[in-house]
Design goal:
185 residues; 0% strand; 9 helices
Length: 185
């Protein structure tokens, strides 16, 4: 029995969702097609009905992960009295640190994308620019807002990455707290 277009689209979306989470947890090179398909509740054989190659899936999953990061930023800040504080408080939280598969793709994929193809690097750059633009607005605009936004976001990403890398929970929490309290400045 053939799948309807709607069913095929939902299946495609499910595969991309699983891959998006896995690459944020494991990196771009690690999850294999069989692992992704199994996690999506599908057989490996069905992969090529949706993608021409693993590279196509990884590119689409990376783009989706980055777009989710942008949507999350707006969910956190659109109605906030202090958008920068709302964003920084979430970004530098234990919840975010402990759930890389559901978190910011900019932090999770920085090393991998830096060695990736043009499609990955372009998608990454677009999301980075969106973050910087939003942070400029949170900081009130002005002449030095872009430089300050870049500095703040670099501190947020660096704090999150370092907090995930250390094997000492107290130090990890200390890093998050220190950067959060400074708001990246």
């Amino acid at each position: 029995m053939r799948q309807s277009r709607e069913e095929k689209a939902k299946t495609h979306e499910r595969i991309v969702d699983v891959a998006s989470r896995r690459i944020r947890e494991q990196g771009i090179d690690r999850p294999g097609v069989a692992e992704i398909m199994e996690a999506a509740g599908l057989t490996h054989g069905g992969f090529y009905k949706h993608f021409a190659s693993r590279d196509d899936l990884i590119a689409e999953a990376t783009e989706e992960a980055l777009e989710r990061s942008d949507r999350r930023l707006h969910e956190l800040t659109d109605d906030a009295d202090d958008p920068l504080a709302a964003f920084a408080d979430w970004y530098l939280s234990a919840e975010h640190r402990d759930a890389p598969g559901a978190g910011c793709a900019v932090a999770a994929l920085a090393d991998d994308v830096g060695r990736g193809n043009d499609r990955l690097r372009s998608a990454y750059r677009r999301q980075l620019e969106r973050y910087i633009e939003n942070l400029e607005g949170f900081l009130g605009g002005g002449e030095e807002a872009r430089e300050r936004a870049i500095l703040v976001f670099s501190a947020l990403v660096g704090g999150l990455v370092l907090s995930r890398a250390v094997d000492d929970p107290a130090l990890s929490d200390e890093i998050l707290r220190a950067v959060r309290e400074s708001r990246g400045s």
